[in-house]
Automatic annotation (TrEMBL), chains A, B:
Its EC number is 5.1.1.3. PANTHER family: GLUTAMATE RACEMASE. Substrate binds at residues 10-11, 42-43, 74-75, 184-185. This is Glutamate racemase. Pathway: Cell wall biogenesis; peptidoglycan biosynthesis.
Length: 264, 264
């Protein structure tokens, strides 16, 4: 018999960075991924609309009997996590708290946060970081062009570098020593950001931190299914073609079969 | 009594360029605009999903008793126009045919078309142009970053110029004398494109051409309501804040009240 799976959802393809890290740390667990590609992006939409979409996405996964829900989308984590926890009787892990915890490694307590408009406007990263490091100075900037640049395959293009320089001047000026990549697409811009901030600024990848949090929870709550077989399932709400193509860059591997479903 | 209105819909805010041109040519007509901002963009989504969204948007306007439907979205015009014409008993005007007609002014019959992935992949512009000028050479390029650049307010920024240069090299090389701006956002990049192509290339703005087509149809079919009062109504599917803010740049004026509705 197959063990219960971990359910992971995102507005689209970006959450595959989280999926990849979870799969690396827990290779024998079954994983189900849902990308809401018919309604992507969430980052420029309103709190209410993102909450509705997140509930519908979570419902799809819960109906498939997952034992744990990972909200791989920063925007949905920022505005819908409490609602999901209230609604569903299973552990729900978002990407904000794990990223915020890692950011506390900052030595000068000057921390930058970048993300979508929705994530930055929510103020959830500063809130989560301040709860852990009350005297941290936090500098938040929305970078709406980073997602389309990453999806265009231009994450390391000169235009991405110039765009990043334009957005991130205030963070350079603020002399941050830690930068939270508060969007699942941004790890693709890692080299571009490293080029701008140099070797000394810690780049926090929420995907890695979230996967570690999932692993810790599994240890603590005894949620592991070591005999599950490591099945992977991918679902999307629009036709899979584009997801399959762009998804490879995020997963660093071929996805296998992707199934289109209706939600909401 | 109020006369019947013209209904105009788009995936979001871009169709306001069409709205503006129609309002300029037919100032006394009543106009209803719907922007499907909860599901924007259409340009990167599949044919089937865009068809479903377009039918739902059109239905909303038809239910409000419009006498004419304008599909201001290039992607929806490219993939859903036939379906809309079959479904609804009223004139339906898209933006592709008017733009294609204008492109026939080309003297060297070397015509460029730029648009979203959905519009370019549909092949509808080349099809419509070739039907009018069978020996035209048509060069089509998708420019996915133009929409986010325009929405970021960077349409005339150096980064927009570099992005355009990157996308449009093949069109410069092809020595086109006519360029169809096949997306409602692109008129905002007019100056940037003019800088790249120089004064001699005709830039075809589908919005203007579509408005002229509406006006001609009104003349021909006697659809005018000269006493309607020029009422304007704006509806969106997500909360209006962002639409109101970004919309001003497209309309060149304040929008007044914008109402959120559910469709689909």
């Amino acid at each position: 018999m197959l063990g219960k799976a971990i359910g992971i959802f995102d507005s689209g393809v970006g959450g595959l960075t989280v999926f990849k890290e979870v799969a690396d740390l827990l290779p024998r667990e079954n994983l189900i991924y849902l990308g809401d590609t018919a309604r992507v992006p969430y980052g420029s939409k309103s709190v209410k609309t993102v909450q509705r979409y997140a509930l519908e996405a979570a419902e799809f996964l819960v109906d498939r009997g997952v034992k744990l829900l990972v909200v791989a989308c920063n925007t949905a984590s920022a505005v819908a996590l409490e609602q999901l926890r209230e609604r569903f009787q299973l552990p729900v892990i978002g990407v904000i708290e794990p990223g915020a915890r890692r950011a506390c490694a900052s030595r000068n307590r000057r921390i930058g946060v970048i993300g979508t408009e929705g994530t930055i406007n929510s103020g959830r990263y500063p809130q989560a970081i301040s709860a852990l490091v009350p005297d941290a100075r936090i500098f938040s900037i929305a970078c709406p062009l980073f997602v389309p640049l990453a999806e265009e395959g231009w994450a390391e293009h000169e235009i991405a570098r110039l765009t990043a320089l334009e957005y991130l001047q205030p963070l350079l000026k603020a002399q941050i020593d830690t930068l939270v990549l508060g969007c699942t697409h941004y790890p693709l811009l890692h080299n571009t950001l490293r080029g701008i901030f140099g070797a000394d600024v810690l780049l926090v990848d929420s995907a890695e931190e979230t996967a570690k949090t999932v692993q810790q929870l599994f240890c603590r709550q005894g949620l592991e299914n070591p005999d599950s077989g490591g099945r992977r399932e991918f679902y999307v709400t629009d036709v899979p073609t584009r997801f399959e193509r762009v998804g490879q860059a995020f997963l660093g591997a071929e996805l296998g079969r992707v199934v289109q479903v209706e939600i909401g």
